[in-house]
Structure to design on (219 residues):
């Protein structure tokens, strides 16, 4: 006789969890818009609650603090960026590299405030936000390495070369979204060609990491 009661007890919790997840996602979407237009320091929790049309306690309930809310927003933005950049895993390696770079640029172009926050490390020197940014870099490096070498677990020299390329891409992309004088296709081709140069340099220093054929043709 206890079994029906146990099953009935599970269902409301499941529905409640789904509602909570949806509500949290809604608050993050609101926060992304708020912080896109206003700096972190300029927004108080009262401001956020008023502009989001919710009780301040609801934000504390889901995120504990303004900082927790801000970090959740950054993590959500990062997830979007990594998903955009890592698309097309079933495509040939060369196409995958092109799609990775195009997805990266497309995200930066359409989510400029979030992109600036991710690559600049947030507000001041924030160790947690910097760790999130570093995670993005590693995800991009892994995706490029998989496309170039067929694996993501690469030697320190190859990883450092790709890291230097990713850091240069960040700087170039920040400048591009501020001064969009080049089309996204032109930017993608430029970044692909600079990546080819990096891959050839890796091969020269470590022949066990040969540059893929397309990078050779670019030479």
């Amino acid at each position: 006789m206890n079994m029906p009661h146990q099953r009935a007890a599970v269902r409301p919790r499941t529905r409640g969890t789904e509602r909570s997840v949806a509500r949290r996602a809604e608050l993050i979407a609101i926060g992304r818009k708020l912080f896109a237009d206003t700096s972190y320091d300029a927004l108080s929790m009262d401001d956020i609650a008023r502009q989001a049309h919710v009780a301040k306690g609801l934000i504390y309930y889901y995120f504990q603090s303004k900082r927790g809310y801000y970090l959740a927003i950054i993590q959500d933005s990062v997830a979007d960026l990594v998903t955009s950049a890592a698309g097309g895993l079933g495509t040939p390696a060369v196409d995958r590299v092109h799609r990775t770079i195009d997805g990266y640029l497309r995200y930066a172009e359409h989510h400029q405030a979030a992109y600036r926050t991710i690559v600049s490390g947030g507000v001041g020197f924030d160790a947690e936000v910097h760790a999130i940014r570093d995670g993005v870099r590693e995800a991009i490096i892994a995706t490029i390495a998989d496309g170039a070498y067929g694996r993501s677990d690469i030697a320190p020299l190859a990883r450092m070369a790709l890291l230097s390329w990713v850091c240069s891409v960040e700087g170039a992309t920040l400048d591009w979204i501020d001064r969009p004088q080049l089309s996204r296709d032109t930017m993608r081709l430029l970044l692909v060609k600079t990546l080819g140069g990096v891959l050839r340099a890796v091969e020269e220093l470590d022949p066990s990491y040969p540059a893929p054929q397309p990078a050779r043709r670019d030479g």
The chain has a mean pLDDT of 82.
